[in-house]
Each structure stands twice: as C-alpha cells, then as structure tokens.
Amino acid sequence: MKNYLFIFAIFIGYAYCQTDTDAKNLLTNLFTTQSYNKLVRPTRNQSEPTAIWIEFFLYGINGFDEIQQKLTTTAYLEIYWYDELLAWTPSSYGNLSDIFLPQEDIWRPDIALENGFKDLESLGSKFIHAEVEHDGLVLWKPFHVFNSRCKLDSTYFPFEKQSCDIDFVAWAFDESEVYLAVGTDGVNTEDATDSNGQWELVSSSIVSFSDEGVSQIRATLVIKRKPLFFIINIILPIVLLSILNIFTFQIPADIGERMGYTVTVWLSFAVFLTIISASLPQSSDTIPVLSIYIIIQLSIGTFSVLLSAWLSRIVGRADDIPVYLLLKKVALMKRRLQCACSNGKVDNIVKHCKIDQNGDEHFNAKNETDSTKREKSDESNIDWKEGVAALDFTCFWIFIIVLIISTLAMLMTSALQN
Ligand SMILES: *[C@@H]1O[C@H](CO)[C@@H](O)[C@H](O)[C@H]1NC(C)=O
Ligand SMILES: *[C@@H]1O[C@H](CO)[C@@H](O)[C@H](O)[C@H]1NC(C)=O
C-alpha cells in the first residue's frame, strides 16, 4: 500500500509541473507554428539519410503450415528514429519531456514484411500511439501477426529443425534516404511463451544488410518440431505392428490360422496408415525418411502375406523337394546349423545328426568328405514340411534384423542432423 501511495505522490508531483497547457502549447508550437508536415522526411538536411533502428520482440510461434510453407508468428517491432522536426526544449514547456502522438500524425518509414503471404500492409494500426521524446526520438511499437514464407525441409520428420527468415524492408526508400539498422536489443525472445504444442524456438538472430541499394532487416528464427507426439503415435505403433508381422513366421505353415493372422496384421497396418496419413507432412518436395521406413515395413508385411499363401500351398506336398529348389538348400543349412548348435550331441530333437554319426564323435565341419557324404545322405529325406519350416526360420531372423537395422538407421539419420 505504501508503494502505491508513493507512486501516486510522484505522479501528482509530475502532473503539477507539467500542466495540460504545457502540452497544448507544445503541440501548437510543433504542428501550427512550426507547421510539422508528416510528408517530410524528418531531417533538417534532406541529403542525409534517416537511420531507423529495429528490434524484434517475439511473443510466440503460432504455427507452421507445411503445405503452404507458412510460418505464423506473433511479435512486435520496436522501431525508433530521430525526428529532428519534432524536438523541443523541455524547460520551455514545464519540463515536459515526452508526448504520445497517434502513429498516423507523424512521419513513419513504410516498413513492411517482405517475405509475407498477403499484400504488403502497413505495420501497426491507427489507434497505436508513438512516443516522442524531447530530443526527437520517436519510439513506435507496431504489434503484428506475421505470416512469413519459410521453406520446410521435412526429410527428417518428425525430428526436423528449420531456420525461418522474417525480412523487413523500407519499401520505397533506398539506402541513401532511409537505412535500417539493428537496435540494441536485436531479437528479444524473453516474452516468447512456449505455447505451441508442436514447435519450439531453438535460437534467433537478426542482421541488417543491403540488397540492391535497399536496406533490409532479417530476423532469423530457428525452430524445431517437438517429436514426442509423433514418436508415441506413429513410430512406436509401426515398430510394434512390424514385430507382430514378423511373428507370422513363427506360426507353422500347415496351421490354417496363419493366413488369417498375417492378413489381419496387414489390414491393421493399412488402417493405421490411413489414420496417420493426416499427421505426415503433405508435401511432395521431399520424401521423409519416415515414409521410406513405413514403405519398407509395409513391403515386408505384403511379402509375408504372399509368402504365407505360397507356403500354405506347398507345405502339404508328400514327395521330396527337388534338388534345384532354394528351399532345399535353406533346409540343409538349417540342419547343419542345428547340428552345430547342439555341438554334435545326439538327441531326439536333432535326429538327423544321428544318421551321419557313423562312429564319429560329432560333426566335423572341416572334414570335407564327411560333410559331402552327409549332404548326400540328407538329400533323400528332406520333406516339404521341413523345408518350409527352415524357410520360416530364415525369414524370421532376416526380417528381425532388417527391422532393427532400418529402425536404427531411421533414428540415427534424424539424430545426426540435430
Ligand atoms: C547536407 O549533408 C550533405 C552530406 O552530408 C553535405 O554535403 C551538405 O553540406 C549538407 N548541407 C547542409 C546545408 O548542411
Ligand atoms: C524543471 O526541472 C529543473 C531541474 O530538474 C527544475 O530546476 C525546474 O524547477 C523544473 N521546472 C519546472 C517548471 O518544474
């Protein structure tokens, strides 16, 4: 309470010194006696350029439109310059040191957003006042929602980082009349609330430069997508569906439900893709790594449906597998692997190892004659069922490895660019 009284006392004190008459006199002097004309560029010597300082105060990132490549930000600019025609001596006006004038009543540079989406439009609005200090310093703070163009590279969706430029230009003036400079604060993002659910601000910078004799200010915002939503709702379900899909190869081919299972998984994949397609970046300029990943997983899914259909047809055949068929080679390899894994131990599970024992304690892979002899003796007793089981086993492990490698590759490429 004390503080309020204190401030109130100060306010009274000032008001006492600066009467309304002082302000009226000042305005009469500036606008009538000195006939201030807002069409005149405010330098006494018109061959000297007017320097305009600009600072960019970001309030928040409203959104990013991937199809239109449009960044929407809410911000205000702090623009200040010296209006030499609006200066006065405070002591002549009861120590009145600053006044506020509607922005329409004073000279202003025609600063506009250059890389905007709509027509060029003037900054600020009629009701905004600019502060004028007695030395002629004009402080103008136009508030705006800026729609600027920003090309988004969604290759690394949803881990992409994007740098967006917001360019300001004094449209009509060239450098010798008006030049833009960066004010002391540069880009200020202290007020920027992290209110956007999808984008966060990583860094910001501002520079002034000259483009064909016209001076410009470029504020650069580096924004990053928050990936959590997409990891939980897209990447994770796809990995889980892919695992389900690979387990098709764990179901024996002669069980009728296998086809049902694999088609169901494929259908859930298709339905899921319909759901997430709205969340994926809808631009054809770049193919996101994630889309390639989804295509790989969908291809494996389709392949396993086709393979299951074929295997369920051949699994019931009674005759032996022809020698030239790949199926037979795979089956033999699996046998050898199983024998090697069981370390030559003769047991019921690896019955066929027994056939080749013939006095040897265990298999010796280095022994050429032995292994050819074994192959010959094996060839006669591989049936289709064993061949199909061996192929299932091989596909299961190949696709598990493909899944792990492709998932890691997808995450690594995205992580590396950050
Ligand atoms: C105006 O400024 C120009 C360039 O700075 C200078 O050459 C000229 O003498 C100045 N004129 C007056 C009247 O001060
Ligand atoms: C203006 O300010 C000066 C110094 O602060 C003070 O001496 C003077 O009395 C003030 N004038 C008025 C009219 O308040």
From TrEMBL:
Key words, A-Z: Membrane, Signal, Transmembrane, Transmembrane helix
Entry GO terms, CC: membrane
All copies of domain Neurotransmitter-gated ion-channel transmembrane, residue ranges: 234-321
GO molecular function: extracellular ligand-gated monoatomic ion channel activity; transmembrane signaling receptor activity
Pfam families: Neur_chan_LBD, Neur_chan_memb
Coiled coil location: none
Signal peptide: 1-17
SUPFAM superfamilies: Neurotransmitter-gated ion-channel transmembrane pore, Nicotinic receptor ligand binding domain-like
Protein's membrane topology: Multi-pass membrane protein
Span of domain Neurotransmitter-gated ion-channel ligand-binding: 24-227
Keyword Signal: yes
Annotated localization: Membrane
Transmembrane segments: 228-247, 259-280, 292-311, 395-416
Superkingdom: Eukaryota
InterPro entries named in the record: Neur_chan_lig-bd (IPR006202), Neur_chan_lig-bd_sf (IPR036734), Neur_channel (IPR006201), Neuro-gated_channel_TM_sf (IPR036719), Neuro_actylchol_rec (IPR038050), Neurotrans-gated_channel_TM (IPR006029)
Annotated protein name in UniProt: Uncharacterized protein
Naturally occurring in which organism (per UniProt): Mytilus galloprovincialis (Mediterranean mussel)
